[in-house]
Amino acid sequence: MELRVKPRDFTAALLFVILTLVTAHIAGQLVFFNTGKFALLAKAFDLDQEKNFPTYFASVILLFSALLLLIIAAINRQSGDRWRHYWLALALIFFFMSIDELVAFHDHINQIVKELLPFAGKLHFAWVIPYLAGAGLLLFWYTRFLFSLPFQTRLLFLTAGLLYVSGAAGMEIISGQYFACIGGIQKNFTYSMLTAVEETLEMVGIALFIYALMHYIDVEFHDLCLRVTSQPQHVITT
Known about the structure:
Blueprint lengths: L1 E2 L3 H29 L3 H6 L8 H27 L4 H20 L1 H4 L1 H7 L11 H14 L1 H6 L2 H31 L7 H32 L4 E3 L8 E2 L1
Antiparallel strand pairs: 1-2, 2-3
């Protein structure tokens, strides 16, 4: 049996799940802040909470991105492609991002950054400074790699990256400063909507990146398939 998945259909399914999670977040916050009821249900779909449905979904799609990157790296390793190490490095980065989504490692380095960088104290979420610096270095390091890609893949990669960084860093700065302005103790409905925009940009960015990877695999390795069999052979064949 062969399993075939169309990139557009799979991405459409991801976007549907994202839309459902965002709608559930908005509905839950509306009900909670207006009635004070259903706090547990609102928390279960709160895009700004940890260890709930949105967090697990975000972690899974990041992990799936890492898996796709690892597949590309493995195939390119067999063919001796010069960029195979770049694909592998990206896979490791996305694996780290998936774990970070679960354990929120970036939140734990906030105070460290504020202590090391005096100007960082003005930011409520100062962790964005080293993460943005890392993203900038990564973009510089990957410039030649990006230009080695087909034009459509390169455009999709850059668009997906822009969406993700706009949410993870751009909106994080805005929502963080707003949270600090209202006291930094208790959230309100406006803050929850800002975080909704932030998380939506991140998840849509990853969904677009997954589409780019699947499209790249479809075009470059058109005979790649997942074969389910009881016979002792490789699962992935080209």
